[in-house]
Amino acid sequence: MKELIDILKRDRKLLPEEFAALINGMSEEDALYLKEQAFQVKEQFFGNKVFTRGLIEFTNYCKNDCYYCGIRKSNVNAVRYRLTLEDIMSCCEEGYGLGFRTFVLQGGEDLRYSDEDIEQICRSIKNKYPDCAITLSIGEKSYESYKRYKEAGADRYLLRHETADEEHYRLLHPESLSLKERKQCLWNLKELGYQVGTGFMVGSPFQTAECIAKDLAFIKELEPAMVGIGPFLPHHDTPFKEYPKGSYELTLRMIAILRLMIPNGLIPATTALGTIHPMGREAGISWGANVVMPNLSPVRVRKQYELYDNKICTGDEAAECRSCLQRRMLTVGHEIVTARGDFIPYTFEAEGKENLCTM
Treating both helix axes as pointing N-terminal to C-terminal, what angle do 2-11 and 248-261 enclose, rounded to 10 degrees? Predict the structure, then answer.
């Protein structure tokens, strides 16, 4: 296994069967070696710096019916909400004062927000905070829609592919959704010049090591700027409510593998990781993550954006959440920085010659 880890560190890739062997055959000793290598690479590129993104969950309406998601359209128990432009700008104002220079607008695929609405939101934020990056995470849209958002000021787009295995995808989603369309959206976003993020759930129902190997192969092919992963966590109002949680340990190992694959990538220690374990986000940083995403959403709606059960930080004010994360990062020898944290491409020749944590 150590030989495979060394190859991955050197070449940034493995064959799918090698990825599967690494996932299935890793001992505790191998895992510690993987962690050491990933941490070494992260330090080389980012030092002890951690980027923050201010998360604004602006709608929990969704037209889709994904079997794992708590805000799926069939969940009649969900208390729905939408934030107004005024609400969103208020979140940005508070976040900017706290040092955030990236705002992540995340929501379900809510058809009430037209392309014109999203453009207005992006332009309003850019006009008032021109030094900030805007990240959108609002699902599958047309090429033309993505183009309009980009022209209105959006810099980045998060769209997790969830699984790169066709059969597995069909087990997690209704027939109205397709993996082919999901992937095409990601390629469209790259073509338009977005800093693109993708990702998947670790331990989702029916997932195998071979499924994860396909995820990693697709990520290598896509070469995204950002990769967000977290453990599968069930929601009580979904068809998967009785399925077990994803593995905390495997999630950490996947973060380390991704760090070796994308040494300059932006990899968050997710809220889901902090939900499954009280020290999950700190551990994520120690295994190679370099981003945290405090919540700027109004406290009155936090509990309603419930993708999974027992989500943490739903009652914290933005300032409290930010300062809490700062303290948590210090316990593992890291500090939060206010830089935008843009993705910086590199070549093997330039590797290690510049520190990417100041961008």
Answer: 40
**Integer Cα distance of 346 and 359 in angstroms:** 13
pTM: 0.95
Beta strands in 44-119 (DSSP E): 49-52, 54-59, 102-107
CA distance linking residue 314 with residue 55, whole number of Å:
12
Give the separation between CA 292 and CA 272, rounded to whole angstroms.
12
Q: How does DSSP classify residue 304?
A: T
Determine how many CB atoms are found less than 10 A away from the CB of residue 2.
13
- Please give the Cα distance from 327 to 320 (Å, whole number): 11
Do residues 23 and 250 touch, judged by C-beta distance below 8 A?
Answer: yes
CA distance 222 to 130: 29
d(CA 185, CA 165): 16
Q: Which two tokens stand for residue 277?
A: 């374990």
Question: In angstroms, rounded to a whole number, what is the distance separating the alpha carbons of residues 337 and 47?
Answer: 11
As a whole number of angstroms, the distance between CA 84 and CA 58 comes to: 8
> What's 261-287 look like in SS3?
HCCCCECECCHHHHHHCCCHHHHHHHC
pLDDT per 10-residue tile (average), the chain, 359 residues: 96 95 94 98 96 97 98 98 98 96 98 98 98 98 98 98 98 98 98 98 97 97 97 98 97 98 97 96 97 94 95 85 92 94 72 50
266 within 8 A of 307, measured Cβ to Cβ: no
